[in-house]
Specification:
Four copies of one chain form a homotetramer.
Chain A (H helix, E strand, L loop, with lengths): L4 E2 L4 E6 L5 E7 L9 H11 L16 E3 L3 E2 L2 E2 L4 E6 L21 H8 L15 H17 L3 E9 L2 E2 L20 H16 L6 E8 L13 H10 L4 E6 L10 H4 L3 E3 L5 E3 L7 E2 L2 E2 L4 E7 L9 E4 L5 E4 L10 H22 L5 H9 L10
Antiparallel strand pairs in A: 1-2, 2-3, 3-7, 4-7, 5-6, 8-9, 8-10, 10-16, 11-16, 12-13, 14-15, 17-18
Chain lengths: ~375, ~375, ~375, ~375
């Protein structure tokens, strides 16, 4: 099945494996006229690149993106934007051993069940390198949202047991620490915790929080194509995500209606707004004009060098220790991936929402400019 | 946009509003030859019907389903199965007041933003009655899964602050209590808590847990169409869901790799299995042959008769008290909805998974029987 | 598979069999605010209703449509519009015989191959009654297109060997003759030919031509989602269609570039236009602002009372004569079906085309009115 | 919109322009275990490569394909197969002039209407080079169909006014002549005609016929996803196609039921078959086990060096002569494109058809082998 395609109007199709020739994406349905250059993409890719701190795999990849189509004279043409990142640092020899058994927590066993065999080099398609394609595509989406005054911002809100303190929340420090936490004290504690994990040859999980600002009300469809539902799918499609919540999320299950309902009120301009945002910016699955707020729980990195019990490909119970270059935690590098999947989802549903009202469709076609009117 | 259609091969399209003529669904892509009668559907619908306890709205609807197409001589024909439930108990007069303001926690405001106006009677399309269509379709999916040895079972695992105790877990008691909890002591406590909520003119949230048993390994696609991602979307498309987690979910974010990884081992027949199931039955988004386990967090019912602040349609800040017939909690009636959305998702992806391997496709077409061979 | 759903943003899902309880459709994605009542639909359904002339089956069905959802206070709400036509005149006894053999030219055999058995009453799902659902949905699309100044008009351009003479073309006479031909002389000849067919217990084919007027340039997507490609699919999805061509169609295969290319020129307002329209209104699969013009070839009605050789369900070669109430020609009643499939396709792609340019998307969101601004 | 993606289970996404960095495709949903190497693709690409005769553009491109992902140890892995052909011979200088006006018959004007500007170099995305991606993907589909005993064969059946004589039909000569006609006499006449066209600085159209052999009965879905409808869309998505017909096609519109119906009979093994094939292998849109037969009409090449009237980008009526390297006819090189689009369509619907019957689904899951059983 077409499992590697996402989106209805702004759609992406990704490809590539950890140790193949590279990783790439085709972005189809990007509106024409968006200024775009490789640098716009590279900035995002650099944020997920390995080797940037002691908590990320020392594998060094430049992860340099090449735009192959869909951009002409510095602007998108409306036709597919293909992008590719060549793999350069793969050392297949590292992985010959893991061909022979199923790594606990990894997709080795399920891929074998599904396909009969697998590309065992570095996890193949199930590798974290697959997210390069998401980030490249998401950078285009974020660039376009920016033109519409919409921003998407993610950060680590918890690393293992260490959570950020909202009273110290400061986005500006996020990029200054290796764990992408917007709270310097929590970041320091988290780094201590991670050092301890590494000493114990162990790994840990964490939580990424994301805020979408500037989205107009009315985005998202009723029933199955709720904005909330599509965000849930988008985020849960990232490997290692085990939980997703919007607004107060699981806490709202313990709350009462009198506390959880956000009263509507009027702002200084007489527009409808809300004073609280327990709902996380969506009501009935449709954006209400407030910030979208959601969180994703990531499990601990599955690859650990501690000894583990498992089964070999030949059907023996064995003890293994997964060697190789692995992050002790996924969260810091996953921050930009969450941001990009959110941008892709929000943009797609924003475009879809343009067709919800006859009066606005009429306006659209009435004010349409004649062809070629923007060229001399 | 086609927001009311769900599924790729086994696909459903729902329609209907709270106070229109009825609610219905078209199930398209149901394989031919499944024994099916209205009674199979009615059993499921009866589980979500209102008026069954003091914790559900006293609105009495028989919710009687009519199969309109797709079944011939007691078996599905492979063509669309249309089903309809006529609304019978709607009292539109109850709702005339709410036309004039935006109910906090409801989709009134976002529907107006999106569509310019709304069917204000009982929430229109955003009403909980929309789930009738999901349950009718899900009953067909569950019936088909049963033929393949796969069962889907949901229950309330938490009502407000009251959680079930796993040591007392007993599915057989679930249907005997009004809150669908598989723990008689927790159920009793939960009912006390709900009585208290009602006295305070308040509402509360809760958690539904669901287990899918018997699913073979290899179901789910890599990347965006992971089984986990599609379950997340399916469950988050249910109104009032604010959180979703698989296996250990948010707890895994605080865990370590050494604890969270499930070691593989061999069962008595020498087949690969796992002793623990922190992963909730999916690795890399693909089923691993273990039970799928996931949870959904529901927010408190938005309609409460306590006074709330909000904004009127004419742009005044006002105080309101939402009257009408409402459940103080959504969870007990949502249990069967979760079950049905899970059945729909699992079945669809199971069918898709049939095409993953050339060797099995070859076998399939080699062993195909000639046309009409099953008729005398 | 979801074979009964059509369209991306304006999407329809149909259901129903010839001799089941009825036939219906769910229209999903219809923009909100369109004035709509059952009468708008009924006018279209009446155009395809049987029993209106000696060339259509004497089966009398009122084919009365009921709108079940999606319309409130006379306007569409943006949520699914379900419509149903109950079957009233089915006489299942007529069809008991055809359960026992495969009718030549019909889908009896292929349904058996696909599904293992079939609803043999009147062709079940493969009956022409399935088109009721297309016409009901198409009537909504045509109504919406009308609001945007776009009209879709189809007519019979050939009945068997009788073709219309373009010099006598007169749309006003089309509705006055039983064969829906816009040429009174050709219509008279065609009726003579059909009388002859009936005497010979035979049937005949014909051609339907369709013109879409008022469509702006720029509708249709490059590559696979060309407007031409989607029209081809839409029209070829109508039973009995065996050919489809746009503009000069098959004749262009015998033409030269110097003759077939349409030169661009300027109209009196200085806008780009064309003097000829060999292309049929599309270049590169995208509308060019001229009229869309296309034709569909329909095969002769398969049900004939002449003797034919075939195979019985028990595997014997036999001679049969298909009894029952059948049209000697499909074309006159197919005219409105072609019109409706064209309207559905054009509208869907028109909506999709709104998202092709960033500058226009920016304008759209800049001029958006605040929520609820169209209510007092 | 995602206009560059085609297929449901076996899905392709294409990208690239005439004068960009290259052209490519992502094939998603290819079953695992298919032996595949670049040579399998290159054989197909070589059949559409320019510069092979005096009737094709002298532009010389090696059109060498690179497989970037999805193949491991010589077999497909089930994950996306990305393929790319770098452009090497583009001479952008050739095309600077055509930036200034709208070429008659081309998509220059409609792209400008849609997108506001266009990549004018060689037609950009609307260039015939876009079909490289279709052919690369189609080669994979054809390779897989071959494993299932299904073959797809196309050829030119008419070049301008010259048609093949069925009594001289000989597939073996097709590859020996420059026009891909399976009739040596017609091929000779066609080449004379083409020489004459070139002398007159003109171009001509033609017809491609295609036969699919070995497809089992039961492929194709009722209603909108008929095999016929999807083939019509697939073929009409090829630039320059203006007509499509199945079996007797437009001729059936002039035929009678007694002639057009194909009687069923029994073959020597007692299986149901047909002696004639007016239907072209499909009944009710579903394959009947006979050969699929269809034809596509191609318009004359739009680029001609004869003088033509048109409009400049600055809004002046002008006279132009399109210079550059162009084929006087599209048909010979389009043969393999038709074949590939047919292979893609047939394979996708074949996979979908696996899920039509419960009994066969049960068999499938009952006989499933345990994971990894095909590895030692």
């Amino acid at each position: 099945m077409a499992g590697s395609t996402f989106g209805t109007l702004f759609s992406i199709s990704t490809w590539g494996e950890s140790h193949g020739k590279g990783v790439g994406v085709v972005v189809d349905g990007c509106p024409a006229g968006l200024p775009l250059e490789e640098r716009d993409i590279q900035i995002y890719l650099n944020r997920r690149r390995p080797g940037q701190s002691r908590f990320t795999t020392p594998r060094t990849e430049s992860d340099t993106v090449e735009i192959l189509s869909g951009v002409f004279e510095g602007r998108t043409t409306g036709t597919p934007i293909a992008m590719m990142v060549r793999n350069t640092s793969q050392r297949s020899g590292d992985y010959s051993e893991i061909a022979s058994y199923y790594r606990p927590g990894h997709a080795d066993y399920t891929y074998d069940c599904k396909y009969g065999f697998r590309d065992y080099r570095g996890g193949g398609r199930s590798s974290g390198r697959e997210t390069i394609a998401r980030v490249a595509a998401g950078a285009v989406a974020a660039r376009l949202l920016e033109e519409l005054g919409i921003t998407v911002t993610a950060y680590a809100s918890a690393i293992g047991p260490v959570e950020i303190d909202r009273s110290r929340f400061d986005l500006s420090v996020m990029e200054q620490n290796a764990v992408n936490m917007p709270d310097p004290e929590a970041a320091a504690k988290a780094m201590d915790y991670l050092d301890d994990c590494r000493r114990r040859q162990d790994s840990c999980g964490g939580v990424v929080e994301c805020v979408v600002h500037g989205l107009p009300a009315g985005v998202g469809e009723p029933c199955f194509e709720k904005l909330s539902a599509n965000l849930a799918k988008a985020i849960f499609s990232i490997g290692a995500v085990k939980g997703f919540e919007i607004g107060d999320g699981f806490a709202s299950a313990k709350s009462c209606g009198t506390q959880n309902n956000d009263p509507f009120c009027l702002d200084e301009n007489g527009n409808v707004t809300k004073k609280t945002n327990h709902a996380g910016g969506m009501l009935g699955g449709i954006s209400d004009g407030s910030d979208l707020v959601f969180r994703a729980a990531f499990k601990p990195t599955s690859s650990i060098s501690s000894e583990q019990r498992t089964v070999s490909q030949t059907g023996q119970e064995i003890t293994v220790s997964v060697r190789g270059r692995h992050d002790p935690i996924i969260v810091p590098r996953a921050v930009v991936v969450v941001e990009c999947m959110a941008a892709l989802t929000v943009l797609d549903m924003l475009l879809v929402s343009m067709t919800s009202r006859l009066d606005r469709i009429k306006d659209f076609f009435t004010t349409a400019q004649p062809a070629g009117s923007d060229r001399p």
